[in-house]
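User: If you would, consider this record:
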Amino acid sequence: MSDGAIAKWNRAAKTLDATKRGEERRYGVFKRHLFDKARGRTLLVAAGTGIDFRYFPPDVEVVAIDFSPVMLEHARRRIGECPAPITLVEADVTHLDFPDAHFDTVVTSCTFCSVPEPI
């Protein structure tokens, strides 16, 4: 990810939750339904401020990634909201250092519109 993109999301971290309130009211129930299908070792792409942590079922193991260190600082404050064990990792979804077949499930929410060349 470019330094400019990282800087942009680092700046956005302090106001992201306020701008996502309406989205959470509209989509929260759907996120819960989708995230509840997660099984085993689960990768959360674009952890952001951790707003989605609460949607995971308790019987998974979550690795939450984000390329913004400031987003991860905010997310760290929400670890207790996740009913499952969770690890935060600074990483770019387009360049992951996990072995093939490391995860049983991959989830994300409203992410790939912000990823250059998502394919």
About this structure: The two ends are 14 Å apart (CA to CA). The domain at 3-109 is CATH 3.40.50.150 (Rossmann fold). Helices lie at 3-12, 16-19, 21-35, 69-76. The chain has a mean pLDDT of 87.
